[in-house]
């Protein structure tokens, strides 16, 4: 197999293609759903009409001129790579970041891989007795992330394509206000963009998780909830009122000593999640909420945000 040629035609480093080839090997992939069924599936995954139209326009029909042999190879092998780790709960890169301005096949290749894995994920959930409603609520994070990426003019997707492999492998579940990532003895908390982070909503979600994981994963024994986020930065206390939802969420955690995390820039994460932009000048960012004002004022003062990790007992 000419991996160098595939990499050159995809416009990506050959090391990235070699990694996909090494991890996927000859392992089985998963078929895409029938094209006729795709609109209903996309709607169930909360994909907005504008995003759904792009996905349908780039559909990998047999003989489609949009799909070169190397794109078809990458779709098949990246799907196999993710499927091979079904049940895994670690961070997984499904393949190289593609030049997404080359058309819908390039822009949404990992969406097609996700769609191919939906039935695989639902089957994994079914084998663990998980209700279909939880399955589809969890998997519908696809639509939410595509909408965020559209708001960010494509700046959000490189992170999201790896993030969504957690859903496709059964490594993450959305239960009420929070998402939970399986670990060894720890359930990692994630906070989707889905409404106010009220103490009542958080506690109801935690109660769901306390019942859900022993029921559906009885061989796994979790003792701790953990979270790694800029939301746990104690510097936020300098700006936000003590009764704010973020402060009250933060107060649940015992913070671990601060260490600069490898590969994470907290300033970038704040811009990504608070403003959904990485390129807008600080002077042009909105200041409608206390959190927006805090984010801007802190950075304009020359200070930096911290990505902190904390935990509390289940």
Automatic annotation (TrEMBL):
Entries under Pfam families matching the protein: GNAT_C (PF18164), NAT_N (PF18082)
Domain of life, source organism: Bacteria
N-acyltransferase N-terminal domain: residues covered: 37-170
InterPro entries linked to this entry: GNAT_C (IPR041644), NAT_N (IPR041273)
GNAT-like C-terminal domain mapped to chain residues: 172-311
Protein known as: DUF5596 domain-containing protein
Organism: Saccharothrix syringae
